[in-house]
Design a protein that fits this description.
about 400 residues, 13 helices, about 20% strand, 16 strands, alpha/beta, 4-stranded mixed sheet
Length: about 400
């Protein structure tokens, strides 16, 4: 058994002390003791330390009331570190948290190691589970969502979902505000694989991504992709007037159909002379190639172009030109065999009273044998609840 005379202090006369909760075994904090503070701790039973910044003794909790009552002190094998078991009167951290250790550092994990350990459920397994409730389109703080991946998983479990797919936005070099970072995909995949492993007994988690038409090809390692068109490419000379997004090389300009209503209107006026149907034709020409360009398994919100058109605000959705445009796109997409999503985000975000696709488009697709899945496209836990609660 060690005595206080066995303690080895550093060249400043200090020894690190690690405090843990004697009941929960949680690490609470790390501080420094000198011979005097250790002696006071042993005499009073209250954790007392030496402040390196203030150069004075201090008793933890003397100001806040969150005293640390010492139950035992153990030296390590070299007698140069102390383990102090305490019964805390309150939070150990000055920020009000139980422990000072609350900011995990993302550890790099080899992708092959993750793949070997992660559950083997894939998209086909989820789709074939007729009894399961699943949602394969949602976003987190990795891109433009409001909740962390963990928070979305916990919410989905609480709602009784059997499987989910997290599908943050692929990187687009011309618009980086809404998507994951350029070099984030490896870390993103590793994060979702770790979650799939941690939650495997409670819910199936697939690693997906919403792959934009104008992103670089997706790397390997995803369980599935949702192919989406959020932009229409227009001549570069329209960039300033339309407030378009210019590619990194300065050669391309893209206008968004769903970023904001003001930008949607500005793009229509600047690039198409106010002819919203011509704008729609350009969009549906773009979306018709979404599977060919992305190799995706699921077609995302096929009529996203109509997001701001509730009540035919900007154009008549029965206009023959508009109908021909979406029918031509749907015919091309049907030939790919990909799945169409019934996407609820237009409703949950308050822009539409019906999901994507609109009833006329849904009926057209259904009569031609399209496969569908229901998705939330949730960007927050509340939106997930709004669809599945």
């Amino acid at each position: 058994m060690a005595t206080i005379d066995d303690i080895k202090y550093d060249d400043k006369g200090l020894v690190p002390a690690v405090l843990i909760d004697c009941d929960t075994r949680q690490v609470l904090m790390v501080a420094w003791m000198n011979a005097e503070s250790l002696s006071i701790t042993l005499d009073t039973g209250l954790a007392t330390f030496w402040s390196r910044s203030r150069q004075e003794l201090w008793t933890k909790g003397m100001t806040s009331g969150n005293l640390m009552h010492v139950r035992s002190i153990t030296a390590d094998c070299d007698c140069d570190t102390l383990l102090v078991e305490v019964h805390p009167d309150g939070p150990a951290c000055h920020k009000g948290t139980v422990s000072c250790f609350t900011d995990p550092i993302e550890m790099p994990v080899r992708k092959d190691a993750i793949a070997a350990e992660a559950p083997t459920a894939k998209l086909a397994d989820v789709l074939e589970d007729a009894a399961g409730r699943f949602d394969l389109h949602m976003h987190t703080t990795v891109s433009d969502g409001e909740a962390s991946p963990e928070e979305m998983v916990e919410e989905a479990i609480g709602l009784g979902l059997s499987a989910i797919g997290i599908t943050d936005h692929s990187f687009t070099d011309f618009d980086t505000e809404y998507c994951m970072g350029e070099n984030a995909m490896d870390g993103y995949q590793a994060k979702l694989r770790r979650l799939a492993l941690a939650y495997k007994d409670r819910i199936t988690i697939l690693c997906g991504m919403e792959q934009d038409m104008f992103s670089e090809p997706a790397p390997e390692g995803f369980d599935y992709l949702i192919g989406s068109a959020h932009y229409v490419e227009v001549p570069i000379e329209y960039a300033e007037a339309a407030e378009g997004h210019v590619s990194r090389d300065g050669a391309h300009c893209y206008v968004s159909v769903d970023e904001t209503e003001d930008l949607f209107v500005k793009a229509a006026e600047a690039c198409f002379g106010g002819d919203y149907i011509a704008f729609a034709e350009a969009y549906y020409q773009t979306v018709s190639d979404v599977i060919a360009c992305t190799g995706a398994d699921i077609i995302g919100h096929v009529d996203l172009f109509a997001k701001y058109n509730e009540g035919n605000r900007y154009f008549d959705e029965d206009d023959p030109r508009y109908v021909r445009a979406w029918q031509k796109a749907c015919d091309k997409l049907l030939a790919t065999g990909a799945i169409f999503e019934i996407n609820q985000h237009g409703r949950s975000s308050g822009w539409r009273s019906v999901p994507y696709p609109a009833p006329a488009i849904y009926e057209y697709l259904q009569k031609r044998g399209a496969r569908f899945i229901a998705t939330s496209d949730a960007h927050s836990a509340d939106e997930l609840v709004g669809v599945w609660g």
